[in-house]
Task: structure prediction
Amino acid sequence: MKSYLKKSLVAGCLFALMLLGNESFSQKNSMPVSVSIFNEATAIPFTKFTTRPFHPGIQVGSGFAYNQHRNHQWLQTINLIYYFHSDLNHGIGIYTEFGYQYMFKNGISFSPLLGVGYMRTYSVNEEFALDNGQYVKRKDKGNGRLMPSLSLEAGYYPKKNFNGTKFFLKYQAWAEYPYSPGFIPVMTHINLHAGVQFNKH
Amino acid sequence: MKFLLSLSFLLMILSCKKSLDLQPTFYDCSPVPADSSSRNPNNSKYQALLNDMTSKGVVGIMMSVHDSKHGMWVGSSGMADLHNNIAMKSCNITRAGSIIKMYVAVTLLKLQEEGKLDLDDKVTDHLNDEILSKIKNTDKSTIRQLLQHSSGIYNYILNPQFQTASLNNLIKEWQAPDLLFYAKNMEPYFQPGEDVHYSNTGYIILGMLIEKIENKPLYQVLDEKIFTPLHQSKSFFAAKDKIPNGIVRGYVDFYSTLEVTESTYYSGWDYYTADGGLISNPYDMSVFIRTLMAGRIINTASLQEMLQWKRPREQDETLFETEYGLGIFRILTSKGVAYIHSGDAIGYYNTMLYFPSDGTTIIYSVNSNYGKIDQLISSKEAMEKIITTIKE
Result:
């Protein structure tokens, strides 16, 4: 399973490079950049919207449109994500999303997005590993997981144009798999993002 | 991008938590009375059993074995505190979680002896909290049915929303209404009396009922009815002292990798409600169950009520064949019938066994659980190995 996850990470990175080298970016000579802060929580998706305590996270992403029309587009994103879940772990990951976005005449947009990626988590506490029948303190090498996600995003384009700045709120449901084999197979999370997307020339 | 990576790295460095630096004296405890371990002919065999468990991944273990021929044996293996490299001692204290349910059952039987209630009273004869009206079957269930897990009331701990919420806030101190929320409006497993299904929710309600009848906190009632009369200074309900001095550190194998992290300060749901929260050690628990079975805590008639068994309609093939009493279970092991209750908290696991055929008691307490460690401590195979080693 570990080698499978490593292969997934390599494949994810290659895919990210492929996206960043995509013609859509080079043709327009600009790149959309999104930055969001979010609250992460372990929760059953779509049963809660806001949660406490606040587990801060930050995400930076980019993307491109496969097929852009005046009021709708099919799009692909690539994102780097980090969160800090107090008393449990840090997570750092990379994931890509495929989605559809529709923009109303008033500039308000709506997007469902399906994603997949790789997440690596590091315990916030000291870690001890069994070595020759005894536990010894060890530097945490982290645990890798697949990170499927489903997000719903509501945005607002003040210039009513997909190439302009967008402010958005995003409800992201995602899972860690495998979480604890033989114990808890999958752990589900929600991230509530508030962010902005702009074009970097 | 650089900003994100730098910020992530900075946060990781800043927020790595070290365990507390503690001196060995923090874990000092007086040796158990009447300890005949060194004279016990099985001393090395029992010790080898514990050493085998710790060599395979159990962080630390304490055990007491008592039989009429050899008296009390106590032993330990592994570590009480990995960060400070302090070995486990057989007199240390630990979290014993759900074993409190046996003490709650004994308390209610004593209250019945005192004429303050009847186990066949409806729960709602004594309690009328608004939240209980939203927990299905509560209005139809008797105290006895809650004690025997035959009320059918939904077990809040199995609610995935609770499981993720508890992980989301590992230091939240859960009170009864917070936990009962996760059983609200949930369908019962069956009508009261039709079957048995383990339910922590029922014991939370029983704890509330004891506090209402006695008009004092549960920890005080347990002190007065059980711990003080038995001179058990190392045993109490967690609400009295949530993280007492000397308690062994708890560890979890969250990711099934035998890479453990400390969980001592995770509250779990183990502080205030009567479905968990016992703090004790194997010696005290051994004294408790032997005194109970001798009819010296509750009278013989009450004990007989406690030991009235109800079979579930279906047995779990992965567990021992089990029947349900009042705050106690009866299992069929390869060495005969045993009365049992187990209990865990985040980072802790305990089992209390009493063999009625010869009065042997086996109590073991472990300061680690979850992941691969559960297989070593709480599986049927693990228990069979312990039982056969001790009773062969």
In short: Chain A has two helices and eleven strands. The mean pLDDT of chain A is 89. The first strand of chain A starts at residue 31 and ends at 42.
